[in-house]
From TrEMBL:
PROSITE patterns: DEGV
Coiled-coil features, chain-numbered ranges: none
Protein name, as recorded: DegV domain-containing protein
UniProt xrefs under Pfam families: DegV
Keywords: Lipid-binding
Organism: Acetobacterium wieringae
Molecular function as annotated in GO: lipid binding
Domain of life the protein comes from: Bacteria
Entry keyword Membrane: no
NCBIfam families: DegV
Upper classification of the organism: Bacteria, Bacillati, Bacillota, Clostridia, Eubacteriales
SUPFAM superfamilies xrefs: DAK1/DegV-like
Length: 281
């Protein structure tokens, strides 16, 4: 039986992404609660409708992670499963997957399940899925070897992100209201990173989108010194034009050859808000 790759819906890939490679792939959806409206983060969700609802809602919004049984249902489908989740620093999703793993192994201890907390989200998860696909397709590595190589690969990855609408962070209590208002009024755009615990840290601030995109592109420079070529994934919330500008900057400044752009699903839209850009490398 083919191995299965399982992720949560903050991995901004289409469900059929690995179909041509003959690899089973599934996304376990989170839920987003905005006022009285519950959005299920699957292929039926319209990110533009979610953005409009968040802008209209004056009170705090929230998200809800999948249950252990949601993950367990996917784990029972294959003898070998690799599970890639968003950071445990901001969500209970990893813990739900961990509980599901233990539950399913109690039912059938012949199953092989490898679980990864990315300490990040969206584009890092995409890079992990792409790497896992390539390792599986070689056909000459066993489950444990692939798991070990993927774990080492995760340690090399970085996440940077540019947020242009801070209103949802303010509503959810993740940013001071005054700081959010000042940033919006002065066109100050914060660029963040995820630390080794998967928590958000401010890296720098830029005034104006041109400087912000230039600063974001420059953040690959340190890695270039030791690794001239590596894949980059950019995910965007309703912002293809600026994602393409960022891609162009990376190509022209650093001659990077492998750059991918994907639109965000619901959960990443919820956190990054309109015009958000995330970059992993």
């Amino acid at each position: 039986m083919k191995p299965r790759i399982i992720s949560d819906s903050s991995c901004d890939l289409p469900k059929d992404f690995l179909e041509k490679d003959g690899i089973d792939f599934s996304l376990v959806p989170l839920k987003i609660i905005v006022g009285n409206h519950e959005f299920i983060d699957d292929e039926t969700l319209n990110p533009k409708e979610l953005i409009a609802a968040m802008k209209a809602e004056k009170t705090a919004t929230s998200s809800s992670c999948p249950s252990p049984e949601d993950f367990a249902a996917e784990l029972r489908k294959n003898k070998e499963s690799y599970v890639i989740t968003m950071t445990s620093g901001l969500s209970g999703t990893y813990n739900s997957a961990r509980v599901a793993k233990n539950m399913v192994l109690e039912e059938d201890d012949s199953l092989k399940i490898s679980l990864f907390d990315t300490h990040a989200t969206s584009p890092v998860m995409i890079l992990m899925v792409m790497k896992l696909r390539d390792l599986i397709k070689t056909g000459d590595m066993d489950f444990d070897t692939i798991s070990e190589k993927l774990s080492l690969y995760l340690e090399t990855l970085n996440l940077r992100f540019l947020l242009q609408d801070l209103s949802n962070l303010v509503k959810s209590g993740r940013m001071n209201r005054v700081a959010g208002a000042v940033a919006s009024a002065l066109s100050i755009m914060p660029i963040f990173r995820s630390d080794d615990k998967g928590e958000i840290q401010l890296v720098t601030k830029a005034r104006g989108i041109k400087k912000a995109l230039s600063s974001l592109a420059s953040m690959v420079e340190e890695k270039i010194k030791t690794q001239p070529q590596f894949p980059v994934v950019i995910t965007h919330c309703n912002n293809l034009s600026q994602a393409e500008i960022l891609k162009d900057l990376l190509e022209k400044r650093f001659d990077l050859k492998e750059i991918y752009i994907f639109p965000m699903h619901g959960l990443t839209t919820y956190y990054s808000n309109d015009k958000g850009l995330l970059m992993a490398f």
